[in-house]
Design goal:
Elements (H helix, E strand, L loop, with lengths): L6 E9 L6 H10 L5 E2 L12 E2 L13 H4 L4 H17 L3 H4 L3 E5 L5 H13 L9 H5 L3 H10 L5 E4 L5 H14 L5 E8 L4 H10 L22 E9 H6 L6 E10 L9 H15 L8 E3 L6 H15 L7 E3 L2 H4 L6 H15 L1 E2 L22 E2 L4 E8 L3 E9 L4
């Protein structure tokens, strides 16, 4: 699917366990600083794991008017704060947002509210629930609130494809702008997984690391959940140039696939199909790609499967790729992960620095990649991809390029 309009990134915003603004987030990444701590948002006494990557030191109350605060679950607040950052940083005028699209991704939606309501209904045996329950639980509430707050009247939707949700959202937003459905898109996603019911579900899967997420490393023990939100302003290149916008990077392509296999076991073939599709859409040759922001969850199966997929697509060039998993610092933020990692990839292209895979203990023969272990690496990379591979075999990969003004 060739794109008749070039699409660029003109605004970025992020809220995460390693930084609640773009500068702090990027500095933490480059320093290899992780955000894993004892979980405070839920009682972990009955769980086999205690560690998560929670957003800390962030006011989630006063930034919202009384009229909307009662309507917004934690996940929606995280998204809206990131979206405000991105829009403000882009410098875009309100009139230019009227015809924009707003496309978000989330795996869980209002999980926190739902868990609280179950406690009210089944543990406390209360007969009446808040009248705001439905809008708080809706996965699309963040997109809706953004459109109302910013006056966005163009296409709006929320995509939920587990851990690929916000990569799918960004990809759909990219195609909309590329093919003229909207001149601008506000996109990204968020998730807030720290409620007891949801944590118990992950506990039952036996894939949780006890203290650190160590993607691609020997002796890795599993993933660590995180929360957060990230947003990107995507813009038609001519539109961005006309208003003198700062351009961070160019979105070059997007690819998707379905494993058609197992609900939780990843497929190297399915992942490779999505990677190849993103390259075909972008017009990039495999040997032109220099950096991969990997899905890299830190589980035994995911990391070896992703390594196999990269070898399948890139062949001998896979050995020359810089591959890092920043989940080793901000955690696995589920439906937000694609958005957070798209921001990471954009910043890596813009700044000429590849963030590390933190917590790395040494090589695993099944992951024969240069994973930028523990220390960031300065390199003026030109082309990169960002992988998201979800439970259910729903895969989404973005291709981005450094903006050189051409």
């Amino acid at each position: 699917m060739g794109a008749p309009h070039r699409v660029v990134v003109t605004g970025l915003g992020v809220v995460s366990a390693i930084g609640n603004d773009l500068k702090t987030f990027w500095e933490s990444l480059c320093a290899g600083q992780h955000g894993f701590r004892e979980i405070e948002l839920a009682d972990t006494s009955t769980l086999q794991f205690r560690v998560g990557a929670e957003v800390r030191d962030l006011d989630l109350e006063t930034p919202f008017d009384d009229s909307v605060r009662s309507l917004l679950d934690r996940f929606a607040r995280l998204w809206l704060l990131a979206a405000r950052q991105a829009v403000e940083a882009s410098g875009i005028a309100s009139k230019d947002l009227q015809d924009a699209a707003v496309i978000t991704g989330t795996a869980l939606g209002g999980q926190t509210t739902q868990d609280e309501l179950f406690v009210t209904l089944y543990r406390e045996n209360k007969r009446r629930l808040t009248p705001f329950a439905v809008p708080r639980i809706m996965s699309s509430s963040g997109a809706s609130q953004a459109s109302m707050e910013l006056g966005i009247e163009g296409p709006g939707m929320t995509i939920s494809t587990a851990c690929s949700s916000s990569n799918h959202a960004i990809g759909m937003a990219y195609w909309m702008v590329a093919h003229g459905a909207a001149p601008v898109a506000l996109t990204g996603g968020s998730d807030a997984p720290f409620s007891l019911g949801h944590l118990k579900a992950w506990d039952a899967m036996r894939v949780m690391a006890p203290e650190r997420c160590r993607p691609f490393s020997r002796d890795r023990k599993g993933l660590v959940l995180g929360e957060g939100g990230a947003a990107l302003v995507l813009e038609d290149l001519d539109h961005a140039r006309a208003r003198g916008a700062h351009i961070h990077a160019e979105v070059r392509g997007f690819g998707m696939s379905s494993d058609a296999g197992h609900i939780t076991r990843p497929s190297a073939k399915g992942a490779a199909r999505a990677i190849a599709a993103s390259l075909a859409d972008s017009g990039l040759n495999p040997h032109e790609v220099e950096y991969v922001n990997a899905h890299g969850t830190g589980t035994l199966l995911n990391d070896s499967t992703e390594s196999e997929a990269l070898a399948s697509v890139f062949g001998d060039h896979a050995a020359a790729l810089l591959v890092s998993s920043t989940k080793s610092m901000h955690g696995h933020t589920l439906g937000a992960t694609g958005a957070i990692e798209a921001v990471v990839t954009t910043l890596a292209l813009e700044n000429g620095v590849v963030p590390p895979t933190a917590g790395y203990l040494g090589p695993d023969p099944e992951c024969p990649l240069d994973v930028v272990p523990n220390t960031a690496r300065e390199k003026a990379i030109r082309h990169a991809i960002s992988d998201s591979f979800a439970f259910g075999g729903l895969n989404a990969v973005l291709a981005l390029s450094r903006w050189d003004g051409a």
